[in-house]
Each structure stands twice: as C-alpha cells, then as structure tokens.
Amino acid sequence: MAKIGESRVYQIKVTLDGIKPPIWRRLLVPGSVSLRKLHDLLQVALGWTDSHLHAFEVRGESYGIPDPDFPEEGKTDTRVHLDQVFRREKDAIVYEYDFGDGWTHKIVLEKILPVDPKVAAPRCTGGARACPPEDCGGVWGYADFLRVIGDPSNPEHEEMIQWVGEEFDPERFDLDAVNAALAPRKRRA
Q: Can you give the pLDDT at residue 128?
C-alpha cells in the first residue's frame, strides 16, 4: 500500500513483446517501490511463477540479481526505485524474464497520480489475455503451443493438454484473481 506521506502512485502498463493480440496489465504502484519488489508484483500480475532470472533495462543499465561470477554485467535491483527510473510520463523500460525463453516486457509510465487513500496500491486496474505457461519456448514456442492445443487432431494435442492442464485458456484474464493475489503484497510494497 502507498506509504503515509508518499505523494505519488505510478500507473504503468506492462505489455509482453512479440505476442498478438497483446498480453498486457495495467498497474497502480507506489513510486517508492524497488525494482525487485516490482519484479515480484509483475510475477503475480502477469501470472509467471518466478522460476527464472530477470533483469530490468533502464537507459542502458541492467538491474537484477547480480551474478557473483560476472559482477560487471548488472547492478542489484533492490536499491533502485520507480521514482528514480521514471522521470516523466511516457518513459519506458524493459523487463526481461526467463533468459532462456527470452520473455521481454515493455513497461510504460502512463500517469503519475497523487496518493488516494481510498485506492489501494499495488493494484491491477486492467489487462488482457492469459500469461503463457512457463518453459513453453518463448514467443515462437508459445505460438506452436497454441496451435497444438487448438487442434484436437494434432498428435501432440493430448500430451500438451496434460502438460499445461485442461484449464488453460489463452484468452482468460481474471482481474479479481490478480488483485486478490496482489493483496498480501500491499503491505510489503
């Protein structure tokens, strides 16, 4: 939840690159949230399972969990906050999740809002479509996955349905479920 005395809430739109029609989420997030905590919020809002590494690209700098073997390749995302990253509305950064599958997300600052005690932050205010399953092979693997699960005559159909579970619907987005999942995180943001 936005902290007492905090004066800004950031409305951001997060869009998964390379997928048509787009998969996106709109979030209200305290400006004081660290990039690490933003990563946690994005995992929940998008539906990822936090099973892989991540990084934020901000004006040519990479922020994430530094690799002790390659300390020059990135900076920690725990000490950088949104109000340091976004300077004005329409600024954008990149969030990459799962370097093997290469899921890149564009995060755009749509609005800087005053704190409203009646509006909880973090909070998801909109979105579209389900997040791809973990480890499905990136944009191209996801396209193939959708083709296979959409064709009951495909020889791989049953195996793929068993892998992902019968409940997967690529068009499903449940705003209430996302906000319920974000609710316990409000105190930590």
A: 98
Cα→Cα distances 165→117, 142, 168, 187, Å: 40, 15, 6, 32
Q: Which domains does the chain have, with CATH numbers?
A: 9-129+173-185 (3.10.290.30), 132-171 (no CATH)
One-letter amino acid at 115 equals V
Contacts for 47 with CB less than 8 Å, ≥ 6 apart: 130, 131
Dihedral sign, Cα of residue 68, residue 14, residue 178, residue 162: negative
Q: Which residue's entry shows tokens 């479509």?
A: 129
pTM score, two decimals?
Answer: 0.89
Axis-axis angle for helices 138-149, 157-164 (nearest 10):
110
Residue 72: its pLDDT value, please? 66
Position 6 scores a pLDDT of 58
Measured CA distances, 13 to 94, 113, 123, 162 (Å): 12, 14, 12, 33
| Tokens of residue 189, six digits | 């943001």
For residue 75, give the DSSP letter: E
Distances (CA, A) of 126 to 39, 84, 166: 18, 25, 25
What pLDDT is recorded for position 45? 97
List of the chain residues with pLDDT < 50: 1-5, 187-189
Cα distance between residue 104 and residue 17, in whole Å: 6
